[in-house]
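FIELD: query
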Amino acid sequence: MFDKEDYYFRVRYRKLNTHCKLSNALRSDLKFESDAGNRYVFALYPEFETLSEENIVGGEREALDEGTAIIRKPIYEDKGGYFDMIRERVKIGKRAYLVGGSHKVAELEIVEIINEL
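FIELD: result
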């Protein structure tokens, strides 16, 4: 679980038709819908709030197929305008995807900004 000051924004998510499992123990990157035509992917990781009571993945509970998650602030330093690029994209109502490589794992909609970056 992240420290609350590291929380950035909350999303509503829906897992796509994939064999990948969602859990707080797995790493996935975030790609904003506005970047569909380019290679930009961001290291913004989720903390799922909607978890299964039964299924365990890598020592953590598996996230349900739909629910909410909190996205953590970037783990990397602000170099070359990285934070500005993220700020431009993080707006309520905007869409994004959790991705594993080139595969979309879950679609997201930003529903709340918790802490400013």
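FIELD: remark
The mean pLDDT is 92.
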